[in-house]
Amino acid sequence: MPQAPSTKYQVRDTSYPRLETHMIDLTIHEGPLEQALQRARERNIIIPTFAQQRDPRLIPGAIKEKLRGVGLWDLDPINLFRITWKNEPVSSGGGFGGVNFIEYPKELTGIDARVVSLVGKWFPTGAHKVGAAFGCLVPRLVTGQFDPTTQKAVWPSTGNYCRGGAYDSHLLACDSVAILPEGMSKERFDWLAKVAGEVIATPGTESNVKEIFDKTWELKASGEDVVIFNQFDEFGNYLWHYTITGPAMAEVIEQVLGAGDRYRGLALTTGSAGTIASGDYLKQQYPTSKIVASEALQCPTLLENGFGSHRIEGIGDKHVPWIHNAKNTDFITAIDDEATMQLLRLFNEPTGQEYLVERGVAAEFVEELPLLGISSIANMLSSIKFAKWNEMNRSDLVITVATDSVEMYGSRLEELNEQRGAFTREDAVVAYERYLMGTTTDAMVELDYWGRKRIHNLKYYTWVEQQGKTYEEIQAQWYDDDYWASIQSEVGEMDRRIEAFNEKSGLLAKLDN
Predict the structure, then answer these.
(1) How far apart are CA 477 and CA 12, in angstroms?
(2) Is 480 helix (H, G, I), strand (E, B) or coil?
(3) Of 16-25, 322-331, 424-433, which range is least confident?
(4) What is the CA 383 to chain-centroid distance, rounded?
(5) CA distance 5 to 475
(6) DSSP string covering 63-76, please?
(7) C-alpha to C-alpha distance for 279 and 288, rounded to whole angstroms
(8) Mapping DSSP to helix (H, G, I), strand (E, B) and coil, where does residue 81 land?
(9) Where are the alpha helices (DSSP H) in 172-319?
(10) How much is the average pLDDT of 283-311?
(11) Coil, strand or helix: which one is 410?
(12) From CA 403, how far away is CA 449, in angstroms rounded?
């Protein structure tokens, strides 16, 4: 076994063997694969490739025609083809177009730099995590590593990922178990009760990730035939965002950049570190661009090696995800969860919306603000902090994501009204001035080499000590220059496996007849 570096400043130990275990396993298991194929034939399941999700123009015309009669959230296998950023923004019968995005006006951000955000509402389930879950389940299904006739797909999550996993499982005719903290929004639980085979609520809220992990170990030990799709260590999550979200962002950047404009970077709450993989793609296209990883100020794990609980639902904390490429991260910032709660009300209560119009925000844009859920607001604030730190001007562009919409948080607005009273004009003034115009660059750090390595090293305590990862692989993540590139290169072979699955099922051929 290779020896650990003896000092902080020792150079890379080139004796580390080239690891292959971190790559997405696409080995064929013939018996379970035949079971999966038979289930697909029975349920009329055709699986889209990553290439089709990235560019829906590649989707067969017969499938597009079928989608005209299907709702965006319908539990119909044909909706697998709607796992893309390019759905027509309608609730039913839509086709495909450009990437769904919005640009925040200066009257809202208070900065000269431009901030654009991809919009997740127009995915099935209303959140882009349905794509991350697809990236984790489908490779195992099309290789026979997951048998939908005998095994259960377990989706541990702090929110939208387990919703996406339950939805994908239903469309792919797999039994599912959704695990999420009991303190998450009522809307999530109500929806999961109708879609997931089983829902398990673990103690705590979005900060209680270890409790979710503990429940997965308990299920493994129970003797049930389960497969755990842990978003925090499944590289299918990373690969889906690198391959689908990254190029979608690049399309938007090219669309909105003017002559002399500069794309400066991506700002995102890290959560499972899936979405932030898009930054790895963008850095390859724009080498001078930066990646900003954001978290809740009340749980500053990356910023201060800290802990705590907060209200920015769904982002997960108190550990560094295994799939976070810390070596490619440039900034860390933290957002006060009170800011997100105040702005959730400002953006959605009539009094708040009226005040925004008074302050010069176009009424047409105010109508778009319900596209932002809680973590989406945190992403917007992170972008503003990034722009202020770097003193950006009107030629600079920052990109981020609106993961989900207020559709998932109506109960939170009701709770806030019960706890604090009706949202008044005075409340709107405070929210706007303090939490938008008053955004500062506190709780922020620009990382050097050792700052990045500090964050990477935090993975050891969760993943090697607790979750069974190896010392060799955590070292390879940092020292092996090909580690992340080898994962990115898997998409071509994965698509070939999907195409072979569809060919064997015979369903695509029937479409052409």
Answers:
(1) 12
(2) coil
(3) 16-25
(4) 17
(5) 10
(6) HHHHHTTSBTT---
(7) 12
(8) helix
(9) 186-195, 209-221, 235-240, 246-256, 278-285, 301-304
(10) 87
(11) helix
(12) 30
Task: Give Cα separations from 42 to 45, 325, 374, 505 (angstroms).
Answer: 8, 40, 40, 10
135-161 pLDDT, tens digit per residue, is 999 999 999 999 999 999 999 887 788
Q: State the distance between the two ends of the chain, measured CA to CA, in whole angstroms.
A: 58
Distance (Å, whole) CA 390 – CA 446 = 10
- Cβ-count burial 201-226 (b if 16+ within 10 Å, e if not): ebebbbbbbeebbebbeebeeeeeeb
96/85 Cα distance (integer angstroms) = 9
What's the DSSP call for residue 207?
Answer: T
Q: Which two tokens stand for residue 116?
A: 């654009």
Q: How far apart are CA 355 and CA 346, in angstroms?
A: 8
176 contacts: CB under 8 Å, gap ≥ 6: 152, 153, 154, 155, 165, 166, 169, 170, 195, 196, 197, 198
CA distance 410 to 505: 42
468: which 2 tokens?
Answer: 């069974």
Query: Can you tell me which residue has the tokens 């919409």?
Result: 405
pLDDT digits (tens, 9 = 90+) for 54-88: 999 999 999 999 999 999 999 999 999 999 999 99
Residues 6+ apart with CB under 8 A from 112: 106, 392, 393, 394, 396
Quick check: 183 and 160 in contact, CB under 8 A?
A: no
pTM confidence score: 0.93
